[in-house]
Design brief:
Its EC number is 3.1.21.10. By secondary structure, this protein is an alpha/beta fold. The chain has one domain: Nucleotidyltransferase, domain 5, CATH 3.30.420. Helices cover 58% and strands 16% of the residues. Strand 2 (12-19) and strand 3 form a beta hairpin. The radius of gyration is 21 Å and the shape is elongated. The mean pLDDT is 89.
Length: 194
C-alpha cells in the first residue's frame, strides 16, 4: 500500500510518501515540506498547495491519502489555515478517485510510539527508527507527515476493511428490507384482488 501522508498547514505543510503493508517495516519514497508566505493572499497559498498535491499524486500514485484531522486550537487563524490546507488535500484525493482517511494526532502518536501523548521529539525519533533513516526528518512537519502515512499503513488498512464490511452488511440489510417490503406489498395486492 502506498500512502501519501499530509500534515496540513498553510505556512508549512508536510508531505510524506510511504510504501508498506501491515506487519512489515514500511519504507519512505519521498518527504518534503511545502512553505508558503504569510504575506501572500490565502488563495495564492492554497493554489500552491493544490499544485504540489497534484504533482505528488501524479508522480507517486498513492493508493490512499492520510490527512491529519484538524482540531480546534486557541489560535483561530492557525486552525483556519490548517483546515483549508486539509480541505485542499481531500479535494485533490477525491478528484483522482483516491480514498482519503483522517487520523487524529493522538491516534498517530499511539501508532508510532505506543502513547497518544508522545511529544514531537519522540514521534520524530520513532519515525526515523521505523523507516531506518540516519536522522530525524526536519522540520517536524516532515516527520509528522511520514508518521501519518505509517499510521495508515499499520492501522488504516484494517479500519478500511472494517468500514467496507459494515457498508457491505448495510447494503445487504437494505436489499433484504426492500425485498420484504416488496413481498408484503405484493401479498396485500393479491389479498385485495381476492
Amino acid at each position: 500500500m502506498r500512502v501519501l501522508g499530509i500534515d496540513p498547514g498553510l505556512t508549512r505543510c508536510g508531505l510524506g510518501m510511504v510504501d508498506g503493508v501491515p506487519g512489515r517495516k514500511p519504507f519512505v519514497l519521498a518527504v518534503d515540506v511545502l512553505r508558503t508566505s504569510p504575506h501572500e493572499e490565502t488563495g495564492v497559498r492554497l493554489a500552491a498547495l493544490e499544485a504540489t498535491f497534484e504533482e505528488w499524486v501524479q508522480r507517486y500514485r498513492p493508493s490512499v491519502v492520510a490527512v491529519e484531522r484538524v482540531f480546534a486550537q486557541h489560535n483561530v487563524g492557525t486552525v483556519m489555515g490548517t483546515a483549508q490546507a486539509a480541505g485542499i488535500a481531500l479535494l485533490v484525493a477525491a478528484r483522482h478517485g483516491i480514498p482519503a482517511a483522517l487520523h487524529t494526532p493522538s491516534e498517530v502518536k499511539a501508532a508510532i510510539t505506543g502513547s497518544g501523548r508522545a511529544g514531537k521529539d519522540q514521534v520524530g525519533a520513532m519515525v526515523a527508527r521505523i523507516l531506518q533513516l540516519t536522522e530525524v526528518p526536519k522540520p517536524a512537519d516532515a516527520a509528522d507527515a511520514l508518521a501519518l502515512a505509517i499510521c495508515h499503513v499499520w492501522r488504516g488498512s484494517s479500519t478500511d476493511r472494517l468500514d467496507q464490511a459494515q457498508q457491505s452488511a448495510s447494503s445487504v440489510a437494505a436489499r433484504q428490507q426492500r425485498a420484504y417490503a416488496q413481498a408484503a406489498t405484493q401479498a396485500r395486492t393479491k389479498g385485495a384482488r381476492a
